[in-house]
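Practice problem: predict the structure.
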Amino acid sequence: MLSRLLTPALLVVSTIAAPAAKRTTHNDFSCRSTTHPNPVVLMHGLGATYYEDINELDVYLQAQDYCTFSITYGEFVEEFPYVGGLEHIAVSAPTLASFIQQVQTETGASKVDLVGHSEGAFMALYVPKFEEGVASIIDHSFAIAPPTHGTTFAKLWSIAILLGNITETVVTNILDTFGCPACADLVTNGTAVERLNEGQITQPGITYTILISKDDELVTPPTTAFVDEPGVRNLYVQDFCPLDTVGHIGEAYDANVWAIVDNTLSGSDAGPEECSFGAPGR
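Answer:
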């Protein structure tokens, strides 16, 4: 989310950490991996797209021999097709559910893994709970900095102002025309937050991991990301890399985060073999 807020120098830090990808084709349904049989559906954050926010994590996972898939969800398609994640959570969730089911069907996999960042991380918890037929095909749900219990989301209403390759003027027009329904859903006491937290969040058969930085400045306080239910693995980036001061936006671009995702989906509780230092964006 908001990858253009990262400075070029800091972008280089996290890009260098990722090896060259084996595959670059987007949504290659013919992809099969003997190393990682579960296809991975990646879900972007508020105001982002599949090619911004989770794009470098996508490249990294492909280089580790994962089959990855993603779409832009929650966009106002006819008027503004280049910005996602702004629609109401209840509108976006069925779109993601259909795509997850499509990935499972077309790849022939028995299970699918979910990895989301920010709003996409919230979706990794929300969609299996509420969308019929999804929970039974999910193996692991990995949520990076989800606003699970709502948040003040410091200056949330302005975080969609600089989004990817479009201009501030265009984004401002979007917000002036439609507002940001997802923003209202995800703040403290938001409709989607209250619905998610009514009853148990986790679903039988799914392994859950929540990861956030202690220095996250949008999901505040960071503990609001965690799911306090049996079997959920709640982690800080700093549990493995104490000197990593990565912020909310940078968590999608952080090589330490990528390694934790990779290890977790591979069945390991380990952190990075070697921590990368510096905060790739906030």
